Automatic annotation (TrEMBL):
GO terms for cellular component: plasma membrane. This is Phosphatidate cytidylyltransferase. It comes from Devosia geojensis. Keywords: Cell membrane, Lipid biosynthesis, Lipid metabolism, Membrane, Nucleotidyltransferase, Phospholipid biosynthesis, Phospholipid metabolism, Transferase, Transmembrane, Transmembrane helix. It is an enzyme of class 2 (transferase). Pathway: Phospholipid metabolism; CDP-diacylglycerol biosynthesis; CDP-diacylglycerol from sn-glycerol 3-phosphate: step 3/3; Lipid metabolism.
């Protein structure tokens, strides 16, 4: 989530300017419809969307860390990130890892300047892409896992945004993101956990306390992902990763909260049920 989500309070009142709410809401509706459609269809449609979206994320990452116009090698890495999602249904994690490894080779040939940031971004995005496509899988359980994850993360984001603007108060991490508050973090945790637990109760007969625990973890991880991106943006002295999504900023600003959560969900599913049943391994206990 963009650092603009919880803006600084005015001197005389905790009320915030809500002028950006319209574009933010409209963009959110479009994103939800697009994501839900791809999630429902699954297969190459979902894998392709994941690849394209995270190729866009890497484009923002490359621009941020190099502070220079994109070169042919940069575009090659962006394309390879996109392909890494599309190959997963064919060759699984090995295929995705192979494509990301090729992108890393391209990055390593571009000299030492920011090579660590480039490689780190490529490897992390490869893990996130593989996790997302593995989570969806080929069964309806993957749809429910995606709905559950999206509900926890986006309700956490929304509640943090509104609570932080309305209440304000003590800063959560002023050295990283001066706009974020404890009230926003706790409001996000409360609503994200409640909404996620409700979806869990609908999606599975597994014990409710497991869904509650997972919802808390994913809500916290979502906020940590948001703070991590804020720290990186502060390192490179930028406010938003881009401006492609009205009211939200860049793709990285919108998806930072999902990244840690989808990896957590996939790791739990893998450990519980194996590579062929990630969503089932996460949902059914």
């Amino acid at each position: 989530m963009s650092d603009g989500g919880q803006s600084e309070p005015a001197a005389s009142t905790p009320r915030r300017n809500w002028a950006d709410l319209g574009p933010r809401f409209s963009s959110a509706i479009v994103l939800i419809v697009l994501t839900a459609t791809a999630l429902a269809i699954g297969g190459y449609v979902f894998a392709g969307l994941v690849g394209v979206v995270f190729a866009g994320v890497y484009r923002e990452w490359e621009t941020m860390v190099t502070r220079a116009p994109l070169r042919p090698a940069s575009w090659a890495m962006i394309v390879l990130v996109g392909l890494s999602g599309l190959v997963f249904p064919l060759w699984g994690g090995i295929g995705t890892a192979g494509v990301i490894a090729l992108a890393c080779v391209v990055a390593a040939t571009q000299g030492r300047a920011e090579v660590g940031w480039r490689l780190g971004g490529l490897v992390f995005l490869g893990i996130v892409i593989a996790s997302a496509v593995a989570m969806r899988g080929a069964t309806s359980a993957g749809i429910w896992a995606g709905v559950y994850l999206g509900t926890v993360v986006w309700m956490t984001d929304s509640a943090a945004f509104f609570t932080g603007r309305q209440i304000g108060g003590e800063k959560l991490a002023p050295d990283i993101s001066p706009s974020k508050t404890w009230s926003g973090a706790l409001g996000g945790l409360a609503l994200g956990t409640a909404a996620g637990t409700l979806v869990w109760a609908i999606a599975t007969d597994s014990p409710l306390w497991i869904g509650l625990a997972f919802s808390i973890v994913i809500s916290v991880l979502g906020q940590l992902g948001d703070l991590s991106e804020s720290a990186i943006k502060r390192r490179f002295r930028i406010k938003d990763s881009g401006d492609i999504i009205p009211g939200h900023g860049g793709l990285m600003d919108r998806l930072d909260s999902l990244t840690f959560g989808v990896v957590f969900l996939t790791v739990v599913g893998l450990l519980h049920a194996g590579a062929g049943a990630v969503a089932e391994g996460f949902l059914y206990w």
